[in-house]
Automatic annotation (TrEMBL):
The chain crosses the membrane at residues 14-36, 48-68, 133-152, 188-207, 219-239, 251-273, 279-302, 314-334, 340-359. Residues 183-365 form the Major facilitator superfamily (MFS) profile domain. The keyword Hydrolase does not apply. It is a multi-pass membrane protein. InterPro entries: MFS, MFS_dom, MFS_trans_sf, Sugar_transporter_CS. It comes from Pseudonocardia thermophila. GO terms for molecular function: transmembrane transporter activity. Gene3D superfamilies: MFS general substrate transporter like domains (1.20.1250.20). This is Major Facilitator Superfamily protein.
Length: 365
């Protein structure tokens, strides 16, 4: 809404700029804050202060966005992305800190349920009133409440005290050598391609309004998101628990990614409201099957226990970098000869390649 108000016909380019710069902030913030919380010590535990500060900073960024004019959304969204990636790094590392390998798919499934609840609530909050400000303020208030369970539970990692030489090599630690850790490298490539395919098809609202010609596109986004989340609800725990019981991760990641590719093809070929809803179901089933089990897989290819949050942050660059690239690619596809058909077709190909490459990982079945 803000991009359209500021840029008018150039809304896709304006949205690409804001989202791309915000994603660049998250790309740096996740591994850096992860490395810091690996080494932090406090009476509250090493991870908790970063979560508390991240949620508070994220809420402040949303308040800044509520009053944004002209290009202020760029700054506000960068603050939100950087702060929430600080908050995200610590809970992600808590899973390998505390959960046995044989239960990590289930833990990832529960995280998927948390995603459903969060998105369902915030999708509704984001549409409070006819302007953007009430939605931002509602999301900021909810964000502060959402951080309390983790902060109050005060989960503790077992940080390794850094030596002087470790601090000297702080920056060097952000490179995971794919020759020494090939499975980490292939896991990074797989996640990057799958997430790039998903992120390219981001401008949902513009697609519904400009191509499908749905009246009341804001309401349509809410409905489509609800249908998508219902499918995610089905896939979340089922895929995580099944991968634990079968002792297999790669088949679920591959199957979920291919299902998302099918949803993208369907969106390109079936340009109706019914097609959007069917694609939303397939996308929900594929996304959570892939993402939940992929997270469990990532925790099993981490190079070192002492640097879990940092290494997860480095691997999560595979999710952040597509957010930087995708808005630029998406804007070029939408405004080019292929239009929205290309916007759906290209992600299908990219995601399918990522699905196949997961079988290059050898240490996890």
């Amino acid at each position: 809404m803000q991009a359209e108000a500021v840029a008018g016909p150039g809304k896709e380019g304006a949205l690409a700029l804001v989202l791309g710069l915000g994603a660049a902030a998250s790309l740096v913030a996740n591994p850096v804050f992860g490395a810091l919380c690996d080494r932090a010590r406090s009476r509250f535990g090493g991870r908790v202060p970063w979560v508390a500060a991240g949620f508070a900073g994220g809420a402040a960024g949303l308040v800044l966005l509520a009053g944004a004019r002209r290009w202020w959304p760029v700054l506000g969204w960068c603050v939100v992305q950087a702060a929430l990636n600080a908050a995200h790094a610590a809970p992600s590392a808590t899973v390998p800190d505390q959960v046995p390998v044989r239960q990590r798919g289930t833990a990832a499934g529960w995280s998927g349920l948390a995603l459903i609840v969060g998105v369902a609530i915030d999708t509704r909050l984001a549409h409070l009133g006819d302007a953007a400000a009430p939605g931002y303020l509602g999301c900021a208030a909810f964000l502060l409440l959402a951080g309390l369970p983790f902060v109050l539970s005060r989960p503790r990692a077992r940080p390794v005290a850094p030596t002087r030489s470790e601090w000297r090599s702080f920056l060097a630690g952000f490179w995971i050598d794919p020759r020494r850790h090939p499975d980490s490298g292939w896991a990074w490539v797989t996640r990057f391609l799958v997430d790039l395919g998903t992120a390219i098809a981001l401008p949902y609202l513009y697609f519904l309004a400009d191509v499908v010609h749905v009246a009341g596109s804001k309401t349509a986004v809410t409905i489509a998101t609800g249908v998508n989340l219902a499918a995610v609800l089905v896939a979340s725990l089922v895929s995580g628990i099944a991968s634990d019981r079968l002792g297999r991760r790669r088949a679920f990641v591959c199957g979920g990614a291919l299902l998302m590719a099918c949803a993208a093809v369907l969106m390109a070929c079936w340009l109706t409201w019914s097609g959007v809803l069917v694609a939303a179901v397939l996308l929900g089933l594929g996304f959570d099957t892939c993402s939940a089990v992929d997270f469990a897989l990532l925790t099993q290819v981490l190079p070192a226990a002492a640097d879990r949050a940092r290494d997860l942050g480095v691997l999560n660059i595979a999710s952040s970098l597509p957010q930087v690239l995708a808005p630029v690619v998406a804007a070029a596809l939408v405004t080019g000869p292929g239009g929205y058909a290309a916007l759906c077709g290209v992600p299908a190909v990219v995601g399918a390649v990522g699905a196949v490459l997961v079988y290059r990982i050898r240490s996890v079945r």
